[in-house]
Write a structure and sequence with these properties.
The complex is a heterodimer. Chain A has three domains: 159 residues, Rossmann fold (3-Layer(aba) Sandwich); 79 residues; 225 residues, Rossmann fold, CATH 3.40.50. In chain A, 36% of the residues lie in helices and 23% in strands. Chain A is built from 20 helices and 19 strands. In chain A, strand 4 and strand 5 form a beta hairpin. In chain A, helix 3 runs parallel beside helix 6, helix 7 packs across helix 19 and helix 13 packs parallel to helix 15. The two termini of chain A are 35 Å apart. Chain B is an all-alpha fold. Chain B has 13 helices and no strands. In chain B, helix 2 runs antiparallel to helix 13, helix 6 packs parallel to helix 13 and helix 11 packs antiparallel against helix 13. The chains are: A alpha/beta, B mainly alpha. Chain A: Belongs to the ABC transporter superfamily. Chain A: Pfam families: ABC_tran, oligo_HPY.
Amino acid sequence: MDLILEDGPLLRVENLSVSFGRPDALTPIVHGVSFDIRAGECFGLVGETGSGKSVTGLSIAGLRSPHSGIQTGRVSIGSRQLPEARDTAAMRAWRRDEVGVIFQSPTTALNPRLSVREQLIEALPRATPRGERTRQARELLDRVGVPRATERLDAFPRELSGGLAQRVMIAMALARGPRVLIADEPTTALDVRVQRHILDLIDELRQDLGLAVLLISHDIGVVGDRADRLGVLRSGHLVESGDTARILTAPADPYTRALIEANRVEGAHTAAAPTGNEPPREPLLEVRDLTKRFRRAPRRGPVPPAAVDSVSLSIGRGESVAIVGESGSGKTTLARMITGLTAPTSGALSLAPQLGIAPANPRIARAQYVFQDQFSSLDPRWSVAAQLSEPLKNRGISGDALPGEIGRLLGEVALDPALATRYPAQLSGGQRQRVGIARALASEPDFLVADEPVSALDALVRAEVVALLDRLRRERHMTLVLITHDLSIVSALSERVVVMRDGRIVEDAPTHTVLTSPTHPYTRELLEAIPGTRIAALNSPHPLPER
Amino acid sequence: MSVLESPSSALETPGLASNSASPERRRSPWPRFLLGRILGGVGAVFGACTLVFIMIAATGNPIRLLLAGAASDEEIARLTAEHGYDRPVLVQYLVFLRDVATGSFPPSLRMGVNPFGPVLTALGNTLALTILAIIIGALAGLVIGYLTVVLRNRFVVNALLTGIFALQAIPSFFLGIVLVLLFGLILPIFPTSGSGTPLHLVLPALTLAAVVAPGIARVFRTSLLETLGQDHVLAARAKGTPAAPFLRRHVIANALAPVISLLGVQSGSLLAGAILVESVFAWPGLGALTVDAVTNQDYSVVIAAVVVIATTFVTTTVLADIVVAILNPQFRVER
């Protein structure tokens, strides 16, 4: 350990630039980024997909492949310099001794073939006897809050929940007592409550161990809550950096302002109170005691509880309902039963009779599904026009009428009709999701089920797609069922919130009521876990108390 | 997802707590798996034998086929009765099954004895050839696949990939003939025909190994590249794991899974490939024996050989499945 001046920075990054590609055709990814982090401090790095934030993190950690592109600038921790990429032994020592890294997807960041014990022991000094290393591994698991550490040592990654796997990952990162911890989207793949627990753990370890933490995220809400200082990265340029409170209240750069605005609009802490004079709605969908029980996986444990357990629900025509819950709460199974994609085990489901076409499976045509993953839900070999013309042909529109109708649909989701000839791979994430929505609209459905429609999108695009769904809902008086794990987009889109847990409905009330005075403790916990508290507090007339 | 979940995980995922099996109640998946595979294998052998019987029964009286024009009707009738071909088909089938189960086949027309013994001897030769070919082919394939990933010289990598492709495109009997010419005429180090010394195995084994190696090399290469791109490999590098254990534990071991599956599939069909190679090098294996028997219309030998080949094929496949399962952590039971 070097002697560090009382308040001097521990990690220094000076003029870091990274380019990818062959020496004769380099693409610059990171342009002269500089920042520093003191011991015990958390520096947040915010940016969209492709902004170079992960590359920055990997470069500091010495994890970039030495064969792809070049890296210039100076990185140091204390008095130690990041070695040359060619010096593999020194680079390995740097990774081993100085830096701990946590990755986005905890379940894939652990080797599926090796037990937790094997992977932890490997991270500990090889000179230590194995028995001693096992003891240390157990202590590390205790330290990061893994319950029943002794048993977990023999677990394989697939046996761990996302939150537990991320704790194991953190234990691995801490094994050699690094001074710098790089957390690259550490909670993006996790449920909102688990996210809070993991971020709390990182905060606690930072304070107890005096770690310098680099927190990388696309979510300015997460970073704003946790970081002492933050930097905003756009197209590889650090457009703004400084004290978190200063940036959140008075952002100097327009891009930062837009990011904060996108987060604030979505903020769950504000929702219009119902005016109380909405006309009663005629019921469109009636669900009674709906239950779905999946067959248990062969050779595995006891019969699992029902995925959806005696759920009763009524949705009115033109109503916008959000079904909220964490992974495994049964929300997607319920949505799939409503749309007729999954058959219920028991219970009744009735849809108000409707005039019009009656194709082979009436319920599927009357309900349309917008999927979370816009990559896999569009056929990569079909052009946009082909994706849209299939449901149109099902409705009997063909020949000369098709191009006009496709153009009208694209216009409705605010896409340039010229995009009709493109293929999904030639579109951005937001454009793909708009095509997915247009495809759903093409069937003229009675209601739209949107399953996590924006959770895979960047903040700004996300705000745009939410606004689009809101406009479509209002213009078409469309019934919208929004499936989400994230309460923060609910206020913008839904009049009513149904909270699910373990296959049951625990709360069903107007959005305003749920967000301001939730009755179920689980709902309260979900609400409290939503990141972005500081942004909401800084911008609302009634600042929330610090938690 | 959560076989090992427990009340303690309620901290984060209360929903899964009730879903859990406590570790003590976790049963080994092995007995059920093994029983299933073995019963399936027995069923497959039974099915194969039945098919053989149906095909023979459908072609008519074998005695008549064999002696048509060469013997009088009375003689044919006598021989038919003697060999039991005049009995009801069901009785013939049951007798056939009994013969198969006990390994007592009717005497061969040419050898005059129960052909089971000679068939087993030939099987031994074929297995020696096949196993050696798999070992050589797999090792060569793994090395080539690995080199195409780690070497940074584009020219060498492309040469290796083209070589693999060419090797895969050459039919094995042609490669065999080329080897015979090469080693018979130009470079006489290895015998090119027959058996007797271990050296006789070299050329047929190399020829058959050329069938195995390209597939292994290509699958291993793809699998290595895929594994290298995975998060856990980056995480292992982040730990500062030294190069040798890093490659062994996190890259190679993980990338081997599809290679082993491929070997399992190939080991069965390699028996068929062996037949061609055996005839090129006059290696006294099952292939040569079967081809001779078919040419001579020696039914008893054909039946014995087909039954033995079917059994070997099924056994190899089941064994390969079990090896794949052993290497799959999903099947590991807690220590």
